[in-house]
Amino acid sequence: MKLLSYFTLSIATLLLVTTACEKQEAADWTYSTDDTMADLAFDDVYNAMSGESNDNNNLRACANLTLSGTTFPITVTADFNASTGCGDGRVRSGVITAVYSGRWNATGTTVTITTTDYTVNGYKVAGTNVIENLGTVNGNPTFRSTVTNGQVTTPTGDVIHRDAVKEYAWIDGTSTPLDITDDVWQLTGSANGTTRNGNAYTAQITTPVIKANSCNWVQQGVVEVQPAGGGVVRKIDYGPNTCDATATVSYGLWSMNITMN
Question: How confident is the model at residue 14 (pLDDT cuts 50, 70, 90)?
Fold first, then answer.
């Protein structure tokens, strides 16, 4: 199995989005920006450990890895050195622990990921992420990611809460297991949580999200964020499956293009 590298958006990108949006509707726009920020933070945790599982990651350059046990369940612990980057533009500190029930590429295997004082670019990420290999679904290898009690704490001390269930379908590149550059992933799923302001919301991928490893950005898909109790839906549209850095954020009749860099 190859590295599950779904997103390359950085936390800095989300800061730019948040700043631009807050100039228009500060309280309103945190629904969409906070959900997206938390989503990317947990994807980063997942990507780090899934890549290590597939021998397609460079964690050994920035973390001390230890393996506990010789038969399943096996525990892998990554202890990050905050002074050393991982070669992907992000600096991590703290510990990620992953407990494997079986081999990563075996149907039914679960990987339970937890963190201890873990940060990425100054954002603290806590919670439990359980990954399950669903085998082949509709002709595609598929994984389910379930995040419970998720929390992302910003450098200024704001806390975003998030629970989520997403499925990652490997829709292209399966015939070349040693080449990760031709992989394409399709994401579906939903989430719920509270923003840094304590406002509850739900989020739904209404058009499947498409991410190719050959592109630095999400290429297609729509995510809709609904405030609890109703209100105007916030929408993030990643475009018509073209490899560019542009997405559109909309709220009611107002919208703006954002650059993901």
Answer: very low
